[in-house]
What we know:
Elements: H1 3-12, E1 14-17, H2 23-43, E2 54-56, E3 59-62, H3 69-72, H4 79-85, H5 88-97, E4 103-111, E5 120-123, E6 135-138, E7 141-144, E8 146-152, E9 162-165, H6 178-181, E10 200-204, E11 210-213, E12 223-229, H7 237-241, H8 245-248, H9 251-254, H10 259-263, E13 278-281, E14 287-290
Antiparallel strand pairs: 1-10, 2-3, 4-12, 5-11, 6-7, 8-10, 8-12, 9-11, 13-14
The chain binds 2-oxoglutaric acid.
Amino acid sequence: MDAKERYFWDLTGHLVVPQVLGPDEVATANEAIDYYTRKILKIGDADDLPGRPDVRADAVVRTSNQHPYFLKMPAPHSDPFRKMLVHPQIVSRLNDMCGPGFRLDHGPELIGHVKGVAGLRLHGSGDRHKPHVAYRNQNGEMYCGGVTVSWQLSDVNAGDGGFVAVPGSHKSKYIMPEDLKYFKSDMDVLVQPAMQAGDVLFFMDGAQTHGTLPWRAAHQRRSILYKYTSRTSARQGTAEEVARPKQYWDQPSIAGMTPEQLAVMWGPYSNYHAELPVLGIDDQGVVRTEEPIDADNIWSDRRG
Length: 304
Ligand SMILES: O=C(O)CCC(=O)C(=O)O
């Protein structure tokens, strides 16, 4: 990362690096997505596939970030996505952004919106405060718990829609107004970066307020998103799957435990919903399990 990039990243919470992939590399990755799409449509029922990709007519408009299809496809189809995973242009920047030892937490996922597909409301920016994805800068060293790297495999022109952010919101001290969250007012603070196929977008996923505008262009959006974290952040992905005490510990360690004891035996992951018990203390001073607040479920109130 050079001084200009560092300044822009720290100031805004996102960064576009132009032309990381050449036209041939973009074409190869797009062919692999076409192959994947044909395969799914041949299977016919996307509901039967892990993660239930969102399919409209002849397009896969979104895959689940819990299921890294693009890393799993048989070679050579997975090759472009495995190269992207540790591309030198990504590694050099993530070493600065997240610190050495960064790792893939979940993804890669495809956002392949076609004209008219709805967006996703604004989210992130400390509501609720999530230390595992927050941004800090101390003694000139930056640290961000969650950075998403989004590879553009088709152009995104001004006004097309797609990724949108509130630059600087990772430093905001106030909760975002509801009108802004649901795009009822843009308050002149929203930016939808224009990008070309081959460009790469980095954004502070969780720290910066961001979301998705409905896709308005005639061509399909093709972004592949890799969700990285710093070494010790655990958001979801495999961490979520192995977090249950019976997976995370051996049987003798947890056999016969009370629900309260079991509550602290869950492995680390932070994008939990209602499944994870948390501990509280009741009026009598007794430790009890409580349901956590389901504050992360942005999908439950998706808006156009
Ligand atoms: O690229 C986009 O449309 C934004 C995706 C997003 O909101 C997310 O990955 O959390």
